[in-house]
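lol forgot to send this yesterday, sorry. struct tokens for the thing we talked abt
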């Protein structure tokens, strides 16, 4: 498997694992050097230096004890004597304590035999000196000052000088050992420092080289991906992405290649769809504008229709009222016609009675005329007889003449009455005929008025029903007008939305036009090995 086919995880693990090993090695060496330094420092501090400090404390305690012993011999008062005695015993205790501690310390591992011999010499001399010092203290306490001074000069001073020399010899030996140890520690430090520098330089060099290689292996494909993303950001979707590894960056470039192809396909489809949407939304907007105009016209027409229906409703209501009044008038006319028919019937009956009375009068007039004719004949006969009577009959002749004149006038009057009666009978008969005809006509009028009344009632009922229907139609038209107004508002809003959608479609078309997709059949390719992207020349 090629190195570039390894995953970034594997590369990073390998690089950081190697770096961790180097760090562990450096850390191990550092710990080793630090441990050696710590051990040397511990040996110096807790060994030589600590023993040198204890030896110095022994020397100091020896000096303090010698001074206290000298003072004990020199003081005269009991209080000073007791004080110096306590000081002698305290200093002697310090000498014994520090010397015992020093003897324990030289038993530790790593202490040289020379140091042990020097400490043993100090202990031997201290044993002798301690006995002599104790004797001197006893003599001083017994007030034998001269014996104490003599013993001090004869025995104590040589032992004290030997003890001081032994402590100084040990101190000098310790200083030499300290110098040697410091020099050795410095040499070890220089060696460890040099080794750490070499290892650190090697680790840094390895880290730099490995980091450069790993960075190049990671950043180069990522830079390719960045170049692809920038190419897509410029709207150029014709890039041919070259994938030459199987690691994460290779999969990233493969995903970018698939994304670029899918985006190219999507932009192509969106471009076509946005063009169709722009055209369709334009048509919809125009249609909505036309529909809005027609809806407004329809709303205006409905308003006019509603106004006309209100007028028609008022007219029908008025007609209904007129029909109701006509029905009342027809009902009254029917009643009047019925009354007129009864009156005509009574007139016909009266005319018949008048005709019968006229006939009776005509008969009476004929009788009167016959009587007048007979009276005239009698008067004529009386005149003839008076003429025959001569003078005696003159008076009777005058009477007969008057009677005759009366008879003639009666006859004339009877003739006139007869003529009048005949004329009256004729007129009465004509009137009776007319009255009969009028009665029949009035019956027909009554029937006609009844039928008219029924028709008018039906018209009134129909008008009332028509009025209710027209009111319902009027309400429906008002509702339709409201709905039409709402529809007009909705159509206006739809027209506005269509305009906005058309504008959005145009903006979408302009936005999609930013991308440059390869034209069908164009395969001209120039490879850019620097970024791993081959760019098609031709764009749609």
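and heres what i got for the seq, position by position
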């Amino acid at each position: 498997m090629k190195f570039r086919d390894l995953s970034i995880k594997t590369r990073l693990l390998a690089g950081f694992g190697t770096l961790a090993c180097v760090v562990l090695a450096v850390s191990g060496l550092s710990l080793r050097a630090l441990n050696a330094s710590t051990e040397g420092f511990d040996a110096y501090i807790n060994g030589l230096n600590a023993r040198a400090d204890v030896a110095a404390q022994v020397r100091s305690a020896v000096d303090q004890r010698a001074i206290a012993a000298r003072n004990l011999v020199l003081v005269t008062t009991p209080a000073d004597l007791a004080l110096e005695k306590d000081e002698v015993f305290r200093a002697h205790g310090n000498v014994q304590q520090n010397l015992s501690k020093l003897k324990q310390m030289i038993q530790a591992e790593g202490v040289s035999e020379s140091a042990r011999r020097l400490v043993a010499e100090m202990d031997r001399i201290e044993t002798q000196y301690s006995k002599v010092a104790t004797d001197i203290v006893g003599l001083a306490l017994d007030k034998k000052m001269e014996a104490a001074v003599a013993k001090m000069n004869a025995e104590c001073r040589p032992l004290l000088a030997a003890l001081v020399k032994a402590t100084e010899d040990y101190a000098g030996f310790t200083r030499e050992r300290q110098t040697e140890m410091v020099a050795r520690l410095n040499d070890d430090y220089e060696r460890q420092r040099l080794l750490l520098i070499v290892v650190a330089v090697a680790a840094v060099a390895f880290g730099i080289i490995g980091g450069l290689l790993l960075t190049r292996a990671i950043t180069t494909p990522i830079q390719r991906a960045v170049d692809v993303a920038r190419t897509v950001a410029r709207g150029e979707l014709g890039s041919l992405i070259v994938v030459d590894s199987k690691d994460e960056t290779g999969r990233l470039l493969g995903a970018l290649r698939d994304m670029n192809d899918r985006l190219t396909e999507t932009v192509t489809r969106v471009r076509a769809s946005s063009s169709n949407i722009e055209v369709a939304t334009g048509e919809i907007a125009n249609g909505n504008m036309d529909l809005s105009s027609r809806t407004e016209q329809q709303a205006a027409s409905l308003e006019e229709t509603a106004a006309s229906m209100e007028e028609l409703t008022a007219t029908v209501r008025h007609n209904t009222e007129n029909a109701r009044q006509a029905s009342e008038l027809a009902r009254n006319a029917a009643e009047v016609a019925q009354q007129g028919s009864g009156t005509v019937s009574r007139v016909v009956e009266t005319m018949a009675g008048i005709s019968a009375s006229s006939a009776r009068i005509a008969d009476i007039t004929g009788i009167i005329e016959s009587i007048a004719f007979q009276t005239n004949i009698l008067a004529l006969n009386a005149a003839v007889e008076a003429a025959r009577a001569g003078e005696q009959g003159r008076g009777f002749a005058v009477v007969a003449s008057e009677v005759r004149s009366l008879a003639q006038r009666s006859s004339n009057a009877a003739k006139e009455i007869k003529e009048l009666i005949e004329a009256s009978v004729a007129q009465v008969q004509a009137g009776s005929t007319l009255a009969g005809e009028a009665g029949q006509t009035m019956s027909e009028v009554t029937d006609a008025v009844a039928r008219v009344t029924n028709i008018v009632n039906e018209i009134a009922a129909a008008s009332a029903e028509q009025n209710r229907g027209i009111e319902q139609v009027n309400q429906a038209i008002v509702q339709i007008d409201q709905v039409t107004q709402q529809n007009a508002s909705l159509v206006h809003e739809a027209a506005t939305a269509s305009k906005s959608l058309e504008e959005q479609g145009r903006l979408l078309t302009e936005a999609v036009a930013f991308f440059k997709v390869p034209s069908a059949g164009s395969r001209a390719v120039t490879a850019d090995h620097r970024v791993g992207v081959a760019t098609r020349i031709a764009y749609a």
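The CA atoms of residues 244 and 370 lie 166 Å apart. anyway ping me if u want another try
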